[in-house]
Amino acid sequence: MTQDLPTPAQAKREARRLRAERAARGTAISHAQALESIARRYGFREWNALHAAIRDRIPDAWAPGGRVSGRYLSQPFAATVLSAERLPSGWVRIALDLDTAVDVVRFDSFTNLRKRVFGTVGPDGHSRDRTSDGEPHLRLDL
Predict the structure, then answer these.
(1) pLDDT (tens digit, 9 = 90+) per residue, 2-17?
(2) Closest C-alpha among 69, 61, 59, 45 to residue 13
(3) pTM for the full model?
(4) Residue 45 sits in which domain range?
């Protein structure tokens, strides 16, 4: 088995890419077949075995001291991870030290800059909490 295993989101993206490549060549496959193929690529017999091995895995970049980028309250950022705690649900509680403070207020005559950000993100890197326009409060690039 390969040591560089993907996160579940990365493996599913690989499966979507594989399906698109096969469809472009005229050989359509189901999503399940693509997932099984991705599992074999990483040395697993089937998708369920690969998924069991990676479902609770925190991406390497999310480890303390790691570098991440993304959007906080729709504003781009780059940051250093201060802490990351895996929760039983597969979500991760993460603390970030932003390189440049972001303004968390959308009001012209008032400013509130924040350099430390705390949030809980799922395996896809998005928080459950949303702004009034439906965007996740915290979105990490994977």
Answers:
(1) 458 887 878 899 999 9
(2) 59
(3) 0.65
(4) 8-54
Domain check: are 42 and 100 in the same one? no
User: What's the DSSP call for residue 90?
Assistant: S
Q: Give, rounded to a whole angstrom, the gap between the first and last alpha carbons of the chain.
A: 22
Amino acid at 9: A
Q: How many helices (H) and strands (E) does the chain have?
A: 3, 5
Are residues 29 and 79 both part of a single domain?
Answer: no
Distance CA(20)–CA(11), nearest Å, equals 14
**pLDDT tens digit sequence for 123-140:** 788 999 998 888 999 999
Tokens of 40: 């074999």
Other residues' Cβ atoms within 10 Å of the Cβ of residue 52: 11
